[in-house]
Amino acid sequence: MKKGNVLVGQSGGPTAVINSSLAGVFKTAMDRGFHKVYGMRYGIQGFLDEQYVDLSDYIKNELDLELLKRTPSAFLGTCRFKLPAIHEDKEIYERIFELLQKMDIEVFVYIGGNDSMDTIKKLSDYAILTGATQRFIGCPKTIDNDLALTDHTPGYGSAAKYIGTSTKEIIRDCLGFSYKKKNVTIIEVMGRNAGWLTGATALSKGEDCDGPDMIYLPEVVFDVEKFTNQVERLLKKKDVVVVAVSEGIKNKEGTYICQLTAGSDSTDAFGHIQMTGTASYLANYIHEKLGCKTRAVEFSTLQRAASHLASRIDVNEAFMVGGAAIKAADEGTSGVMVVIDRLSDDPYQSSTGVYDVHRIANGEKFVPREWINKEGNYVTNEFISYVKPLIQGDYAPMLVDGLPRHLTMNATGYKDVYGK
Ligand code: F6P
């Protein structure tokens, strides 16, 4: 029987390998005989404005596919858009399903994190309610690694590799200035309420580097005074102190430390506040209290865009989950998210499975308390053993004039939407 079309979108914060999943969706859909693969521009939000592209206009050969796998950020554009509940706004669902019908879409794949899985959940529920035949599959992605039921998420390994590497480089830089001069550097890492990324700063510890002195995850309540005392004690013993903190650390009142600063009051459609400024707040605080030189380093978007330092394992798994999403849909499944199962650590091996998206959407998976030390200021060896296999290998960028080449729709990425 002739197959219809696939529609794929990217949603939420991007990663260094999100486009490798897009490449996996495209390649597997073509191999399995689907007619066309359309890409939503800016996720479901752009799709509602009928913004989409035919991916074969951009991926014409193996080289394009390889460039796409090495391109950070969302090639198609992304969004943070919350679909209303079905009973709140039936019209929006009618509009989406009309468009799907018009475009002969058989399979809808959404590459995203916990908020984006809410979209898959609602669309697959609506399809069941109305007897629509399209299949809806979630393809996991997030540097935060906070999705339930999957061993880890594509995007995490590469971000962890970047974070481990950059932490090591920052520590070396600090040590170079340590002659008769005390300095404290505070590194701020993304991850919202989960400390998977912040814990990855411990990867820097090894034969040639001591790693950060302390690591604070959001899973443990943060006490500014206690922290200051710990830094003071360390400064009595050494000249250079490097600390990693998660953007999501909170005090015992439940206030994010970043909210103690001015300028972090913007929220997204899911009610998440924009977290920024934790490191600079603490660096200023330490400077005021202890009088030493301090510096705040916020990895910010670099940690999710550093495709030049992507992990080979991560790039390949991202591609694999994209392919598994198409395979699951082709076999008649809907309302699920693809998960990664770890089969072994040494040699590292993994495979894919699927889980009901209702069990994943909107949830958060945290670092187990037993993977954080008793004092709540470092991760344990179990944590390191978990993350280490995920950062292995590289996926060398294709350099043109000395810089990595990316696949783009056009220089700005805006042309087809705004006609500029
Ligand atoms: O969810 C991924 C993530 O990178 C989080 O770690 C971070 O808090 C958030 O996105 C930042 O989002 P935005 O770029 O929309 O401010």
Written account of the structure:
By secondary structure, the chain is an alpha/beta fold. The chain has 2 domains: 5-154 and 306-364 and 392-404, Rossmann fold (3-Layer(aba) Sandwich); 162-304, Phosphofructokinase domain (Rossmann fold, 3-Layer(aba) Sandwich), CATH 3.40.50.460. 34% of the residues lie in helices and 17% in strands. It has helices at residues 18-31, 43-48, 62-69, 90-102, 114-130, 156-176, 196-199, 224-237, 278-290, 302-305, 312-330, 381-387, 415-418; strands spanning 5-10, 37-40, 52-54, 105-112, 135-140, 183-189, 214-216, 240-246, 293-298, 336-345, 348-356, 399-400, 403-404. Strands 3-2-1-4-5-10-11 form a 7-stranded mixed β-sheet, sandwiched between helices. It has a 4-stranded parallel β-sheet with strand order 7-8-6-9, with helices on both faces. A two-stranded antiparallel ribbon has the order 12-13. α1 (18-31) packs antiparallel against α3 (62-69) and α8 crosses α9 (278-290). The longest helix has 21 residues, at 156-176. The radius of gyration is 22 Å and the shape is globular. It starts with a strand and ends with a helix. The relative contact order is 0.17. Residues 412-420 have low confidence and may be disordered. 6-O-phosphono-beta-D-fructofuranose is lined by residues 12-13, 113, 142-144, 190-192, 247, 268, 274-275, 304.
